[in-house]
Design brief:
Elements (H helix, E strand, L loop, with lengths): L4 E2 L2 H7 L7 H7 L1 E7 L7 H22 L6 E3 L7 H8 L4 H14 L5 E3 L6 H9 L6 E4 L4 E3 L6 E6 L2 H12 L3 E5 L2
Antiparallel strand pairs: 1-4, 2-7, 2-8, 3-4, 3-5, 5-6, 6-7
Helix pairs in contact: 3-6
């Protein structure tokens, strides 16, 4: 089983291109936007949720590839997972995701916040936690810098170092039926 690779806070801050202490700090300091879904026109809401979830997972997998599969980081606050929150998460995810969660808890216990994301196969698990609003993670991409913040009703704050990177991801998002509404 592939697992995240824990790194300490100082190494994390040194490695990520766009480090944001809190979301307001991100909106003040960086070019920012909200990644959103273009309208899904199906009648079945459950199907719409699945379509939205799969769309953003595929988008993040593509971003992972574009960033050359390396130096991609995630924050995941294992230390904030109580027994009750773990049970809530388990009751709302697929069997294979339960296995991923349990393996990470076994390895890290309630320690760690910052991790290197060593394989794109972990993306669906962390994105499903985000899209289902079960537990939020932030993704940090460095080759083409972007920080991808958790989910707010299928809207994802994103942060960029420069206009060129914003334009790059704006155009990429269109390929997935997504858009980035520019904030700053």
């Amino acid at each position: 089983m592939i697992l995240l690779e824990k790194i300490d806070d100082n190494e994390f801050k040194d490695k990520v291109s766009i480090y944001i202490e809190n979301i307001n700090n991100g909106f003040e300091r960086y070019i920012s936007g909200i990644l959103e879904y273009e309208e899904v026109t199906r009648d079945n809401m459950v199907e719409n949720v699945k379509i939205k979830e799969d769309t953003v997972i595929n988008f993040i997998k593509e971003v992972y590839k574009i960033n050359n599969f390396k130096d991609i980081y995630i924050d995941f606050y294992f230390e904030n997972l109580s027994k009750e929150s773990i049970e809530i998460i388990k009751n709302n995810i697929e069997k294979e995701d339960i296995e991923v969660l349990e393996n990470h808890i076994e390895k890290f216990g309630n320690e760690g916040v910052h991790f290197r994301l060593p394989h794109e196969g972990l993306i669906p698990f962390f994105m499903r936690l985000n899209t289902r609003e079960l537990f939020f993670s932030t993704f940090y991409f460095n080759e083409v810098p972007m920080t991808f913040w958790g989910n707010y009703n299928y809207s994802f704050p994103v942060f960029f170092k420069c206009e060129k990177d914003f334009e790059f991801y704006f155009n990429l998002a269109k390929n997935f039926g997504l858009t980035i509404r520019k904030i700053k």
